[in-house]
Write a structure and sequence with these properties.
two-stranded antiparallel ribbon, single chain, mainly alpha, 11 helices, elongated, two-stranded antiparallel sheet
Length: 269
């Protein structure tokens, strides 16, 4: 096997290893309650990771057994997949750049406003057809029920670093001045006209604040937080993949040159 093909085989093995954190990041995103309720964002990363794994495996086989057609297929498909991954990264960065959070005095957690988030993401999530499905999905999850198990006193809850989704959906906005009973049970607001969400709150455990704008904003805050974490892994993976791809292209050209030179020598022999 030519030296260039040896190099290409090693590089494809590295690319195959890069697909593992991509699949892991996608699986982690897909397992989150908010992504379980928004199918558009659930599987793209996993799908890309699996495709990169399969294409890298094809490239490794092509390099190891000197299958030029398979190597050419690998280079074409890997270039396309890297391009798609870059598009996904840019899209995720753009829609997760804006932050609708704000600090609440006397609280460790933040609260969220819809106006602070990307208009595209906001419109997609708050669309009545989408939100009705998302709301039903969230109400059937254990996002809020976990809070009552973890926090008992008001001081414990107010100093807790709960998720944006829990902050927006599981309690009324702080500005309403509801009296704390437990994390998902609040009574007697002293400022009920401060926000429309004050009227939307319900102590019915299947309702809570799932109809509130703060819940929609909390969902967007959760998506932003999770995608920005996943982006770190994806950026590292795509940088390695680009580096591997460029070297693989060079090795492929060198392998073709070596083959032409060998045939030229055989022709003279």
């Amino acid at each position: 096997m030519a030296v260039s093909n040896n190099i290409t085989a090693v590089l494809n093995f590295l690319a195959l290893l890069c697909s593992i954190p991509i699949i892991a990041a996608g699986t982690w995103l897909a397992s989150k309650p908010d992504n379980e309720c928004i199918h558009l964002f659930r599987w793209p990363v996993v799908l890309l990771g699996v495709l990169i794994l399969l294409v890298s495996l094809a490239g490794f086989v092509g390099a190891y057994w000197n299958k030029e057609g398979l190597l050419a297929f690998y280079l074409f498909c890997m270039g396309l997949l890297i391009g798609l991954l870059l598009i996904l990264l840019v899209f995720a960065f753009v829609v997760s750049h804006s932050d609708g959070s704000y600090v609440v005095p006397g609280r460790a957690y933040k609260e969220y406003r819809l106006e602070g988030f990307s208009s595209w993401l906001r419109n997609y999530v708050t669309n009545s057809g989408n939100w009705n499905k998302i709301r039903t999905c969230l109400s059937q999850s254990d996002v809020c029920s976990k809070l009552s198990q973890n926090y008992i006193t008001a001081d414990q809850f107010f100093m807790a670093h709960i998720s944006p989704l829990q902050s927006g959906c599981c309690k009324p906005p702080t500005i309403c001045n509801y009296g704390y009973v437990n994390p998902t049970l609040w009574m007697n607001p002293t400022n009920p006209i401060a926000d429309s969400d004050c009227y939307a709150w319900s102590n019915d455990q299947s309702q809570l604040c799932y109809g509130c704008n703060s819940c929609k904003a909390g969902l967007l805050g959760n998506l932003r937080k999770e995608w920005r974490r996943a982006n770190v892994i994806l950026i590292v993976a795509v940088v390695v993949l680009i580096w591997v791809y460029l070297i693989a292209c060079s090795a492929f050209k060198n392998a073709q040159t070596e083959d032409l030179f060998r045939r030229y020598k055989q022709g003279w022999a």
